[in-house]
UniProtKB/TrEMBL annotation:
Pfam family membership, one: Glyco_hydro_32N
One function term, GO molecular function aspect: hydrolase activity
Entry protein name: beta-fructofuranosidase
Highest taxon of source: Bacteria
Domain Glycosyl hydrolase family 32 C-terminal: 362-456
Organism of derivation: Streptomyces boetiae
Record-annotated Glycosyl hydrolase family 32 N-terminal domain positions: 22-331
InterPro entries: ConA-like_dom_sf, GH32_Enzymes, Glyco_hydro_32, Glyco_hydro_32_AS, Glyco_hydro_32_C, Glyco_hydro_32_N, Glyco_hydro_beta-prop_sf
């Protein structure tokens, strides 16, 4: 068996938009994370994967695993469609649980002659590397009165197993429907318990709504009957829209929900999936899709066909529910270990050139008043991602209208709540990785967006506005990824990452960045 470890490759020419830190294979299509579980000493991150092309088709379960969330292994696809079988058109989304020395996967079985996706199951006896599919279907038919039924999520609470399945009701409400197993050791027999939560489309802060269909419904218990329901809002005309969280409390087997909260305030984050970690944390990964020239999410794209890859998994996040009913997120604490050299450490007021940063970087930024920051991707400064604080609302505006000189790239601006107006400050952590930025506020909100700089220069940071600011920036060292598949491919080319020279910033601190670059996360069989 071949074994390949990917790491920094600064001397190779590669796709400048390919991530160095976010997980994905080097080629083809990736979408929802699936089957997140801690089993046999490893964190397992399965994901929707087309091993044949960069189009949304022929879904398999790809597979990464790690002992520490820092060093990863890419294994062969763990689940594949069975020709002529119940999942002939794809092994679609679901989850997995560790029990009795086995890893049991629950997934949506897609076939062209059904509008719904019944629940199927498979078990692994070899640490999650391969699975044996259970004969037949676990839940073959949806309950009456549904127009959408897919994406099982199973979890154990006290002495019972429970399952949610994403749904849409015939009356136009999105829903999560609820099942319970027959006993504490039984993952084979399930009884329908009714609707866990259903809501008509409800407006969300910042625009959009909770839609008529819910995909990837998942539940994170918080103790004392409290918990968070996470769903992905799906529109029957437009498809995937956004991720939503409902805080609330269980009452008689149903969920009494508070007001819905946008789980991520950006345009490119969907299908979050949960992993109950052995240390008590709830970890979360999501699908970060492209913002190229596709007509809508999942549609064919000439740019994507040319690039040969689409989609990535978010960095792991920690999800929690505060006593105030706010759902909070922050980057998983392990990610701090990926910080390399500090390239910027500066504070000031008014406009300033801060120096170069790596295309994969970890930034801590404080903005007051109307202060902002531009991350420029071209030497002449015409191409930049802009973050600016609105002093009236306290929101941070993330604007990518000028983030790419390629006219095919999508633009737009989004608002991230980060304070209460003038007199307050916005404290941000920004995880930048070539064509993606995940932005977090101090109080647990997040915004994710894609951008595609083509200017060919190293990134550079610039303070804007007239108010006070502070910036610290570190390189992000790419995590090692060992390819344990039989025939890993040679990584695809990436454009020059332009190692910058050290510079002196206005505050007298050294400001520079060594672009890490690296081979893509792991190889791909042609």
């Amino acid at each position: 068996m071949s074994k390949h470890s990917s790491g920094p490759h600064r001397d190779q020419h590669r796709d400048p938009h390919f991530p160095a830190v976010h997980l994905r294979p080097p080629r083809h299509w990736v979408n929802d994370p699936n089957g997140l579980a801690f089993h046999d000493g490893h964190y397992h991150v399965y994901f929707q994967y087309n091993p044949h092309s960069a189009r949304h088709d022929a879904m398999h379960w790809g597979h990464f695993r790690s002992r520490d969330l820092l060093r990863w292994e890419l294994l062969p696809p763990a689940l594949a469609p069975t020709p002529g079988g119940e999942d002939a058109e794809g092994v679609w989304s679901g989850n997995a649980v560790s029990h009795g020395g086995r890893l049991t996967a629950f997934y949506s079985a897609k076939r062209p002659d059904r509008w719904y996706q019944p629940v199927a199951a498979a078990t692994s006896e070899d640490g999650g590397r391969t699975f044996t599919k259970r004969p037949g279907l676990l839940i073959p038919e949806p309950p009456e009165g549904l127009t959408l039924f897919r994406d099982p999520y199973v979890w154990r609470e006290e002495d019972r197993w429970r399952m949610l399945v994403g749904a849409g009701l015939a009356d136009g409400r999105g829903a999560a429907v609820h099942y319970a197993s027959a006993g504490p050791e039984d993952l084979e027999h399930w009884e329908y318990r009714g609707v866990f939560l259903a809501r008509a489309p409800q407006s969300l802060p910042g625009g959009g709504d909770t839609e008529e269909g819910w995909e990837c419904a998942q539940y994170a218990p918080a103790g004392d009957g409290r918990g968070t329901l996470v769903i992905s809002a799906w529109d029957p005309e437009e498809g995937a829209r956004c991720a939503v969280a409902w805080p609330g409390r269980e009452e008689g087997g149903a969920f009494a929900a508070g007001e819905p909260q946008r789980l991520d305030h950006g345009p490119d984050f969907y299908a979050p999936a949960l992993l109950p970690a052995p240390d008590g944390r709830t970890l979360l990964w999501a699908w970060i899709w492209e913002a190229r020239d596709e007509e809508r999410v999942g549609a064919p794209s000439a740019w994507t066909d040319e690039a040969g890859w689409a989609g990535m998994l978010s960095l792991p996040r920690e999800l929690s529910l505060g006593a105030d009913g706010r759902v909070r997120q922050r980057p998983a604490r392990e990610l701090t270990a990926l910080r390399g050299p500090r390239r910027i450490s500066a504070a000031g007021q008014g406009p300033a050139a801060l120096g170069r940063i790596a295309p994969a970087a970890d930034l801590e930024v404080t903005l007051s008043g109307d202060a902002g920051m531009r991350l420029a991707g071209s030497a002449d400064g015409r191409e930049y991602l802009e973050l600016r604080r609105d002093p009236d609302s306290g929101e941070v505006v993330a604007d990518r209208d000028r983030a790419s000189l390629d006219p095919r790239a999508k633009g737009g601006a989004w608002r991230l709540p980060a304070g209460d107006g003038d007199g307050a400050t916005a404290r941000l952590r920004i995880l930048l990785d070539h064509s993606v930025a995940e932005i977090f506020t101090e109080d647990g909100r997040a915004l994710t967006l894609r951008c595609y700089p083509v200017g060919g220069a190293a990134w550079s940071a610039h303070a804007t506005g007239g108010a006070a600011w502070a910036v610290d920036a570190w390189d992000l060292d790419p995590p090692p990824v060992a390819d344990l598949r039989p025939s890993p491919e040679i990584p695809a080319p990436r454009a020059d990452t332009h190692r910058p020279r050290p510079a002196t910033g206005r505050a007298g601190e050294p400001h520079s960045a060594a672009a890490p670059g690296r081979a893509p996360a792991a190889g791909e069989q042609p």
